[in-house]
Amino acid sequence: MKNYKKLYINLMLVATLGISSSCNKDFLDEELTTAYSNDYYKTEAGIQALAVGTYYQVFALEFGGEVPLTASESGTDEFHAGGDPSNHIWNSYAAGLNSFVTVSNANTIAANTNWDNLYVGIGNANQLIESATAIISSNDAIKKTALGEGYFLRAFNYLKLVRQYGGVPLKLNVSNTVELEFSRATAAEVLEQVIADFTQAYNLLDNIGAPAKISKDAAAHYLAKAYLTRASEINDSWNSATKSADLQKVVSLSDEVIGRHPLAGNFVDLWNYTVADGANEKLPELILSAQFNSSQLTTGGNNQHLYFLSTYDQLPQMKRNLAGGRPFSRLAPTYFAYDVFDKVNDSRFWKSFQTKSIINNKSGSYYDNGDLGIMYIMNSPSDTRFEKTKNTDFIIDSKTGKTIPSVYVAYAADNFGLEKDVRFPSLSKYLDGARIDLTNTKGTRDVILARSADTYLMAAEAKVRLAKVGGASFADALPYINQVRTRAGYKSGEDRSAYTDGSAAWTATGQAGIPISFIKENSYYESNNIPTSTAPTDLTISSISTLPAEDQAVISKLGYTNDYDRMLCLILNERTRELCGEFHRWEDLSRTKTLVARAKAYNIEAAPNIQDFHTLRPIPQTFLDAVYASGRPLSAEEKDQMQNPGY
Fold first, then answer.
1. Cys-Cys with 386: which of 409, 410, 523, 597 at CB 3.0–4.6 Å?
2. Which stretch of DSSP H or E encloses residue 449?
3. Which residues contact 470 (CB under 8 A, 6 or more apart)?
4. Is the model's pTM score more than 0.90?
């Protein structure tokens, strides 16, 4: 599946040539007899090629670019506006976020982009289902695998649609003519279809080829996610009849998946990317990934390495380089994302964020390339060591005795903070030094779509919800949470200052003679101001009445008092600690109806503007303007009726 983009392009080219050749038989006085028509999809080869193309449309095309940032991370408690304004509107919830989105520049994601992409994928999946169903064949690769993939891919996109927009039009067959009349199904109807499709996929697929191929476990994971969505607060006006049974299914499906996908031994193993298709992209924890590769024969690639990166290259003694990354700086972490971690005992913060860079553009005789050039001190609010947030040539590196050109402090006496500047610790889960050079945007590493740590936390959430309806105790969630937290602790003998990310995949050829700025070291000890230790740490939560201090701080800020709200808050916090930046957050907060409260509390640009109606996205105006009713375009009143409230 690593070459599915190349195969998809070839397939679409074949289809285009087939259509164009039928338009003019006299073209160059030749009759083209080798091009394919739609009859190609009636063959086993055509069906398998269509499956490859639909993988690309639904996974690689969607998750390789900027749409997931605007749909899933912007405007949440985890991330706020970075240094580049291209898509600030998706973070701020200002008036320009509507059925048409106010354009900042050519990189601004339009209101209809995600909607259109998802429906194109659904159209491809419909064709795949129809073709694999209609063909007379005893080949399991067609009748089970391709058909199961078709059902999964359709459900995957409809699940995203219903979690973003609520009820949407359901289109379940192939269009052979132009269709203009559509109505919105209810969220209940869409989720019923999603569950039916994922169930079909689960029954048809086996467990071969993960995470590159859709497997039975991938279907089980997303089926559990669909049930959990139906049981969430955003659907409480109609979900009471199915809630308890849905939550039981979340637990049983999650247990099944967890049993075959053990967590990686160390959290850093997930992000220790050194080469395309390397060991970290094949870990048993991974259930499904969007596939990318290092082939230069394909265009595009995984561009996520661009978007979470701070603009290091504009600071003194620094220069852009392949190992340092190309900083588009779309999103910056919030203080919630910093402070929700126990930064002494929880290794995940230090394995998710880059906090040091070395000089690679020395000027003068004082510094050498390789000296510490940038450091972020991620201290606690009670730390009184620092006067200023920004420290230029002031703080001394204990290893060299030299001042560090640029040091930024999370908590200093000036109360300036890290959210008013374009410098911040960069989320490092997507950094990619394996690109061919520093200007190239084509990333090579896969995007993880599903892993079993997420499955553990879905099961934990289901237990919390079951406790609310009398089907479990709140403490039943703790074993699932503690499995994830146990992996997050430091191991005996582990060097807490050690660090790596995908920048380590840099090559001398790619660096082209420019010194590297990447260093395999973090600011753990400078931030925590504690003696060196190699002792193991324990993050176990033993009682629901005594939650970690980091969680209690969030609970107090948001005003939660009862056990259900406190435990759901714990789950959402744990999801940030484990899954920060992995394109889950907006939908998690929307479905739990915690988006508004958390964005107001933690996102400085969103806080003044976000309102309750922002828990759903606007239906794109381009769709509303194109839809007909009874043979005529919709009236203004009918468009308003089809639009989500508030837009």
1. 409
2. strand 447-451
3. none
4. yes
pLDDT band at residue 266 using 50, 70 and 90 as cut-offs: very high
H-only helix segments in 35-85: 44-55, 61-63, 67-68
**Closest CA relative to residue 6, chosen from 207, 277, 214, 293:** 293
pLDDT for 36 equals 58
* pLDDT tens per residue across span 88-107: 999 999 999 999 999 999 99
- Over residues 58-79, the pLDDT tens digits come to 999 999 999 999 999 999 999 9
Judged against a pLDDT cut of 50, whether residue 317 lies above it is answered with yes
Kindly report, residue by residue over 199-255, the tens digit of the pLDDT. Answer: 999 999 999 999 999 999 999 999 999 999 999 999 999 999 999 999 999 999 999
Look up tokens 């669909």; give the residue: 226
Q: How confident is the model at residue 38 (pLDDT cuts 50, 70, 90)?
A: confident
Q: State the DSSP code for 108.
A: P
What is the token pair recorded at 159? 């699940």
Q: Which residue has the tokens 């503007």?
A: 609
- Answer whether the bond into residue 211 is a cis peptide, omega within 30°: yes
**Residue keyed to tokens 């976020």:** 97
Going along the chain from its start, the domains and CATH numbers come out as 4-66+109-260 (1.25.40.390)
Q: How confident is the model at residue 27 (pLDDT cuts 50, 70, 90)?
A: very low
Cα(146)–Cα(47) distance, rounded to whole angstroms?
7
Question: Rounded to an integer, what is the distance from CA 201 to the centroid of its chain?
Answer: 23
The answer to whether the CB of 550 falls within 8 A of the CB of 341 is: yes
Length of the chain: 647
- 315: nearest Cα among 353, 349, 356: 356
Instruction: Quote the radius of gyration of the chain (alpha carbons, Å).
Output: 25
The two tokens of residue 266 are 């160390």
Residues 537-552 as b/e (b if ≥16 CB within 10 A, e otherwise) read: bebebeebeebbebbe
